[in-house]
Amino acid sequence: MAKAQDYGFGAFAFPRGWFMIGRTEDATETPSSVRYFGTDMVLYRGKSGKARLVEAYCPHMGAHLAKNTTSYIVLDGEHVQGESIRCPFHGWRFDENGQCDHIPYSDFIPKAACLKTFPVTEFAGILWTWYDPEGLEPDYPLPSFGNHYGEPGWVEWNMAHLGDLDIHGCEIVDNMADLGHMVPVHGSTECIYFSNEFVDHVVHQYFGTRHRNEVANHEYNMLMLDTWRTGPGILESDMQGRFPGFWLIASTPIDDGRERVWSGIMVQVNDGTQAPSAEDIALAREFSMNAVHGLGQDVEIWANKRDCINPMALPADGPYGRLRTWYRQFFNPRDKAAELQKRVNGRTVTLDLREAKGIAVDVFHAPPQKALQSA
Ligand code: FES
Ligand SMILES: [Fe+2]
User: Fold this and answer.
1) Contact between 96 and 84 (Cβ < 8 Å)
2) Which residues line ion ligand 2, judged by CB < 5 Å?
3) Which DSSP string corresponds to 151-204?
4) Three-state DSSP class for 39?
5) Which ligand does the CA of 73 lie closest to?
6) Residue 338 DSSP class
7) Ligand 1 neighbour 66 (Cβ under 6 A)
8) I need a surface site. Which of 196, 246, 251, 308 has the fewest CB within 10 A?
């Protein structure tokens, strides 16, 4: 499988950004083994309830901190104490900063007895980390997902793990600029509008299409989507269909050239003045299953394709090249990122048949208010 270097993205093997590392329920007081960014890690929840992510191997003699069921450290319930995690091999314990704070048989604790820790933020039922090869603080905030998580009238998402794909993350990102696959893969019957707007670390896709399934209540049966990617790991979509919906696709590198993908949708079933009925919830679930199925159609392609270093792109495909240049900003130091942003910021309209088809402009979900500012 091709790696970041094979695509020529830049200095880093893994991109800077916010990434999902699990669902809220994945962090418990029983430490578990996870792997992201080419690094074996351990996820656990301290007694305070805070989720913690640390490197997997003990600096003493290299034991894996989670993969154990038989040591008396584990059997006696001493694996997690307070915010600290204790190694199952000789019992060295590491606090929330990764510093060793107890060795059962020695008062002397070496300064170098320290585990690397990774930041964890819990939001919208999801565990997130900020990954940065330069080790700097986030230069953009974690998205708020339209503030719909927990909002009255909305049925929350239930993030589904769609697979671990032997594919570089860029081939997933390519989808943002891919008009040509909408009819064959996703069942569009007539695409009316498709454009991309590049705004620094964000890229939008505005898409309006008729669809073979019943997707909307109005006369055009038009699905209208404002879909945007915030950095390399988070795709959100504001959907105006049968129900207002808000879709998240999260993808995180496991290794260079291997990516984990999750997806979930929140659906608005009423104005929030009453609790959703069982019928509302069932309908919302069905609607969101259809959309998750839609992503499954992409996943089947991604899981089986070969790497594509150089797309044989047509102008009618969409701006793949511009999108990959946008993507490169996350693989390079921040001072270089600004220059790449400057190169791509702006808008590409790949398709606009609104006038030709006599379809009123305002049936589209906000073609691109935000976009117009930098068009
Ligand atoms: S290897 Fe972890 S305490 Fe010895
Ligand atoms: Fe797709």
Assistant:
1) yes
2) 175, 298
3) -TTEEPP--EEEEEESS-HHHHHGGGG--TTTTTTT-EEEEEEEEEEEETTEEE
4) strand
5) 1
6) H
7) no
8) 308
Number of compact structural domains in the chain:
2
207 and 106 co-located in one domain: no
Tell me which of 54, 61, 84, 105 to substitute to probe ligand 1's pocket, judged by most ligand atoms within 8 Å of the beta carbon.
Answer: 61
**Claim to verify: residue 92 and residue 188 sit in the same structural domain:** no
The single-letter code of the amino acid at 126 is I
CA 41 to chain centre: 18
pLDDT digits 0-9 by tens, 173-222: 999 999 999 999 989 999 999 999 999 999 999 998 888 877 666 666 77
Ligand 2: centre distance to CA 179 (Å): 9
**Which pLDDT score, from 0 to 100, does residue 320 have?**
95
Residue 370 pLDDT grade (very low, low, confident, very high; cuts 50, 70, 90): very low
**Whether residue 213 is found in the same domain as residue 97:** no
Task: Verify that 104 and 204 share a domain, yes or no.
Answer: no
What atom in ligand 1 is closest to the CA of residue 58?
A: 2
